[in-house]
Amino acid sequence: MTYRFDKLDFSLLYRRLPSRILIVQLQYSTTTNDYCKKDHKPPTAIIMTTYNGHCHCGQTEWTVKLDDPGHILCHCDACKILSGGEHTLNTLAGKDDIKITKGTLKTYDYQGDSGNPVHCYYCPNCTSHVYHHQTVMGDKVVIRTALLEGGKEFKVNAEIFGKDRLGWQPELAKTFPGPPE
């Protein structure tokens, strides 16, 4: 597809992937002509991919739109307790980008390291945690990427709460001692 904005042409290619729908959002400034002439950069196209997710028992299903699918490994003590493992696999998405398509979620709250509430949303049957909303993060939610179709192929983009990483774990990506700032 070719789009034309104020005498500026650029092509946008997309393809359809199994169980994924590509959604294109364009960031465009009314001053693009001046911006493009000065910096020689076209408007930025952000490609959002929709992923399907489901809990362990299949009672709950959802979709989430992600612009950069990848894992953020969280080594905080709360995540280790919730998962029973050495870290959790997560990414960030907007609250409006996740839609529950089957079942309903239960919720509980705890106090995060910031001192603010964290709302956890999980399947009432198998207790798989679908997402968390840390109120300190505004309209962003923490999505559990291991529950998404295709999640096994995601790369590791970052690690957070590296200060709590178990001593025998290797560093796999850029690591922040706590949450990224």
Keyphrases for this structure?
181 residues, mainly beta, 7-stranded mixed sheet, 4-stranded antiparallel sheet, 8% helix, disordered N terminus
How many DSSP helices?
2
Show unreliable segments: 1-40
Structural class: mainly beta
Order of helices and strands: EEEHEEEHEEEEEEE
Beta-strand portion reads 35-45%
Find the count of extended strands (DSSP E, 2+ residues).
13
Sheet having the most strands: 7 strands, mixed
> How would the global form be characterised?
globular
How big is the Rg? 19 Å
Describe this structure in words.
This protein has 2 helices and 13 strands; from the N terminus they run βββαβββαβββββββ. With 181 residues, the chain is mainly beta. The strands form 3 sheets. Strands 9-10-11-12-7-6-13 form a 7-stranded mixed β-sheet. Strands 3-4-5-8 form a 4-stranded antiparallel β-sheet, with no helix packed on it. Residues 1-40 have low confidence and may be disordered.
Topology:
Elements: E1 2-5, E2 8-11, E3 21-27, H1 32-39, E4 44-54, E5 61-66, E6 71-74, H2 77-83, E7 88-94, E8 98-102, E9 106-111, E10 117-122, E11 129-134, E12 140-144, E13 156-160
Parallel strand pairs: 6-13
Antiparallel strand pairs: 1-2, 3-4, 4-5, 5-8, 6-7, 7-12, 9-10, 10-11, 11-12
